[in-house]
């Protein structure tokens, strides 16, 4: 059977290690040229497939592809473009198959979160019905850590390491100034519906830091929260508050809701930290500072978790190996074997059980008062932030790679999104 080409694309918010997965996909494919002729990447994610804007990765040197392992963000461009249901917009799925046919693509590797898993699953279904079967493999990625079945998601461990480190360092700063200045520091982190990133800040408790966490999974009780802040400050002289962007009032409103929607139809969030900080100021009079981690938490490759880098690469490699073994509509997973010593292996999950399913913080991971994490949560989190995997540095800055991203010649007509 002649070798087919593969299509790879990155989707949604990027991470410090998504390019490590890309590296795993491309390097593994290059070792199997008898089955995979070339890897074409989508410029700006799935949009690249729809508009036939493909990137020829064969023109990149082995050294450049290897450097992806140490480079943050999405090397080929990502996007927040959600394909609608097959019933609502069949033309886009048919266009994907048309592009795959035109470029002899038999493998589809989609690197993203829950929405990407859904798209990947639909493509696998439609390709069969249209008589052009494509092996669709989802490569897991999300700092939100909310994909089901897999123990954790590539991208999360590094974000967790960055947040825990930043919260620790900022807390030392506040502690230094608390006698005459700032007494409360508020850090806002990502996590629309799941509080995994916020939970990572709970690890600094073991360093003697008074910290309160506001999770999306726990309804925000303003009176209880303000009482907890006051108690911490009275006991320690200062307090650090970590608030997930998805923290909500009992009526379901986000603390940070702006009344607008993003490209996926999700409520546009922004501003939970100042909301909480001003709430504290009005109730207690404490001087405060606040910060929003925003892109910093998902771009910080200089502080990536070695565990995370290794798992991200392994997911990309496994995706290709699954495809070559004939698997379809599946996602490689991280399967935890033990906590201490930490051990894991690659598992496999059907996309039918992954698509449109979110994994939330278990209640037994959150302390009884709702403002911290439990020992079992610490056992889960600690291995994921372990190890350092620094990028190479040059002239004092990380030396990251920018690819050529040369286009593949188009064969089809223009397609309007």
Describe this structure in words.
By secondary structure, this protein is α/β, with parallel strands linked by helices. The chain contains twelve helices and 15 strands. The chain has helices at 18-30, 46-50, 62-67, 90-102, 114-129, 156-177, 196-200, 222-236, 272-284, 295-299, 306-324, 375-381; strands spanning 4-10, 36-42, 54-56, 105-112, 135-140, 184-189, 211-214, 239-244, 257-261, 267-269, 288-292, 330-339, 342-350, 393-394, 397-398. 51% of the residues are buried. Belongs to the phosphofructokinase type A (PFKA) family. PPi-dependent PFK group II subfamily. Clade 'B2' sub-subfamily.
> H/E order of the elements?
EHEHEHHEHEHEHEHEEEHEHHEEHEE
Count all strands and give the number: 15
Tell me roughly what share of residues is in helical segments.
25-40%
Q: Could you describe the largest sheet, including whether it forms a barrel?
A: 5 strands, mixed
Query: What is the subunit organization of this protein?
Result: single chain
| Adjacency order of strands in the biggest sheet | 3-2-1-4-5
Number of helices: 12
Whole-angstrom Rg: 22 Å
End-to-end C-alpha gap: 35 Å
The overall pLDDT, averaged over residues, is 95
Low-confidence stretches: none
Overall shape: it is: elongated
Class by alpha and beta content: alpha/beta
β-strand percent reads: 15-25%
In short:
By secondary structure, this protein is α/β, with parallel strands linked by helices. Helices cover 33% and strands 20% of the residues.
């Amino acid at each position: 059977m002649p070798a087919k080409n593969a299509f790879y694309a990155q989707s949604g918010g990027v991470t410090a290690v998504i390019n490590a997965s890309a590296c795993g996909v491309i390097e593994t494919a290059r070792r199997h040229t008898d089955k995979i002729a070339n890897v074409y990447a989508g410029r700006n994610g799935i949009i690249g497939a729809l508009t036939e804007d493909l990137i020829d990765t064969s023109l990149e040197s082995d050294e450049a592809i290897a450097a992806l392992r140490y480079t943050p963000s999405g090397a080929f461009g990502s996007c927040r473009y959600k394909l609608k249901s097959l019933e609502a917009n069949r033309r886009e799925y048919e266009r994907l198959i048309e592009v795959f046919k035109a470029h002899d693509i038999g493998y589809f590797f989609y690197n993203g979160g829950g929405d990407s898993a859904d798209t990947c699953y639909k493509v696998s279904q439609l390709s069969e019905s249209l008589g052009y079967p494509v092996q669709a493999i989802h490569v897991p990625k999300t700092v939100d850590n909310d994909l089901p079945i897999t123990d954790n998601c590539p991208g999360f461990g590094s974000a967790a390491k960055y947040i825990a480190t930043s919260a620790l360092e900022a807390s030392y700063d506040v502690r230094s100034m608390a006698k005459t200045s700032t007494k409360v520091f508020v850090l806002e982190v990502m996590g629309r519906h799941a509080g995994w990133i916020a939970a990572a800040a709970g690890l600094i408790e073991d360093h003697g830091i008074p910290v309160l966490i506001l999770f999306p999974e726990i309804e925000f009780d303003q009176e209880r929260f303000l009482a907890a802040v006051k108690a911490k400050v009275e006991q320690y002289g200062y307090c650090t508050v970590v608030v997930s962007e998805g923290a909500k009032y009992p009526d379901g409103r986000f603390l940070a809701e702006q009344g607008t929607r993003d490209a996926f139809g999700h409520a546009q969030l922004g501003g939970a930290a100042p909301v909480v900080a001003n709430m504290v100021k009005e109730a207690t009079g404490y001087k405060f500072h606040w910060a929003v981690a925003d892109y910093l938490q998902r771009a910080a490759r200089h502080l990536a978790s070695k565990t995370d880098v290794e798992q991200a690469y392994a997911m990309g490699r496994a995706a290709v190996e699954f495809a070559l073994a004939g698997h379809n509509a599946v996602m490689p997973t991280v399967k935890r074997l033990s906590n201490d010593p930490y051990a894991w292996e690659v598992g496999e999950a059907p996309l039918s059980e992954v698509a449109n399913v979110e994994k939330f913080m278990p209640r037994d991971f959150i302390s009884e008062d709702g403002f911290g994490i439990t020992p079992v949560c610490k056992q889960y989190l600690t291995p994921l932030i372990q190890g350092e995997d620094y990028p190479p540095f040059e002239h004092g800055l990380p030396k990251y790679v920018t690819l050529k991203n040369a286009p593949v010649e188009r064969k089809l007509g223009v397609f309007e999104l």
